Amino acid sequence: MAQGRRATVSMVLLGLGLALAIVVPAVVLSRRHTSCGPQAFAHAAVAADSKVCSDIGRAILQQHGSPVDAAIAALVCTGVVNPQSMGLGGGVIFTIYNATTGKVEVINARETVPTNYVPGLLDQCEQAQPLGTGAQWIGVPGELRGYAEAHRRHGRLPWAQLFQPTISLLRGDYHVPSILSQFLQSDFLRPSLSKTSLRQLFFNGTEPLRAQDPFPWPALAATLETVATEGAEAFYTGTLGQMLLEDIADQGSGLTPQDLASFQAEVVEALEMPLGDYTLYSPPPPAGGAILSLILNVLQGFNFSSESVARSEGSVNLYHHLVETLKFAGGQRWRLWDPRSHLDIQNVSQDLLGEALAQHIRRGRMAARWRPPAPSTRPSGQCCTHRARASSSTTSFWTYAGGAPRAPKSPPNPVSLRTPLVRRGKVGRLVPRGSPWASPSSHSGEWRHRRRGGLEGAGWK
C-alpha cells in the first residue's frame, strides 16, 4: 500500500500513557515508504475500545463518510457501550492529520471550570474523594461542541447519520456489556454507586446489573435523537441544556446557562517531536502531549535495539531506563497548565520537548540502581488535581488510519483522539431526563480555566 512520499500511521501510545495516567491522542507520520502485509487492511482500519463501536465506525467509512465522521459515530457508540469511560457530559481532544495540506491540527474540547466555581474546593487535597462527593465538581461539558467543530471542519455525511447506529442500538434489544458489568461489580464502585442516583440506572433492586442483563436506556436514546435532529446547540442553548441545569442544580451544581452557551472548542497547532524516521504530533497543554514527547525523546537517546534487549542484561537495562524515565516525567505533570491562564506555558512545552532536558534526564537519573519517584517541583497547594487523576482515571480512545473507502489512491487522513473522564463513574450523578452524565473537570489535572481500554479494531481489504 504505497502512499507516495509519506506513508502515514495513526497510533495511540497506550502503554506509556497508562503508566503515567497521561494518555494523549497522537498522530505519527513516517518518512519511509510502507506496504501492507498479508494481515493489513488496504483501505482503512478503525480501532475503538469495543468491537460494536469499531464496526459502527467502519460502517460510516463504507458509507463514504470521512475519518472524522467515523470517529464521531464510534464515540457516540462508546458512550453507551462503555459509559464508565466517557459520555456526553465529558470532553474530547481530536488530533487530525490532513493529507491534502500536510497539516496536523488539534481540536481541544476539554471540560472547562464553571463561572461559579466554588473557591477553596481544591483545598480538599488531603481528604479522600469518594464517588458521591457531589455535583459541585461538575465542569462545563465540551464533548458535543467538540464533535460539532470537528464535523464542521472535516465531516462529509449529514450530522444525524452519525447518531443513528447508536440510537438503533439503544432502541433494540440492548444488554449490559461484560466490561461495564465488571466495573459495576468492583469493590471500588459498587458501594459508592449504591448510594447515588446512578443506582436507578445500574442496579436491579439491591444488586448491580450483570453481563447480558437487559439494559434499557430510553432517556439517552431520546437525548441522542434530539441532538441528531437539532444539532449540538440543543445541548448548549436548547431544551436539553436547560433540563441538565435544572437536574444538577437540585444536586448542588452551580453550572449556569451562560457556562453552556459560552463554551467553545479551540483549534490549536499540535506539538511536533522528531523520532527517528517518524514525527510525533500530539496535543499541547492542558493535554499531556508534551509529557509523552518527553518520555519518547529520552528513550530514543538510549539507542535500544532488538539485539541489545534480546539479552537478559539488556532487557533488564531497558526496563530500568523506562521506569526511571516514567517516574521523572510523572513529576513534571503539574506544569501542564491551561495556556489561556498561564501565558508562559509555550515555553514550558518547548522545555519539555527540548533535547537539553532529555540529556539531563539521561545523565542524572540513569545510574544502575533503583531511585525513588522523582519529587514533584510543583508549587505548594497544587497537589489535588494530579493525585486525583493518577489514582482512578479512566479514558476512552479511538483511532483511524487509511484513505477514503473504495478510493485506494486517496490520501490517508489519520484521526486519533482521547475522550477522558477523570474518575470512574464520573461524580455519581444521573441526569434523569437528559441522561448525559456529568464529568468532574475540577478534579482533572488537564482542566481548562474559564478566565480568561485495549482497542478492538475493524477494517477491510
From TrEMBL:
GO biological process: glutathione catabolic process
Membrane-spanning segments: none
InterPro entries, sorted: GGT_lsub (IPR043138), GGT_peptidase (IPR000101), Ntn_hydrolases_N (IPR029055)
Pfam annotation, one family: G_glu_transpept
Highest taxon above the source species: Eukaryota
Keywords: Signal
Residues the record lists as binding L-glutamate: 110
Name this polypeptide is given: Gamma-glutamyltransferase 5
Gene: GGT5
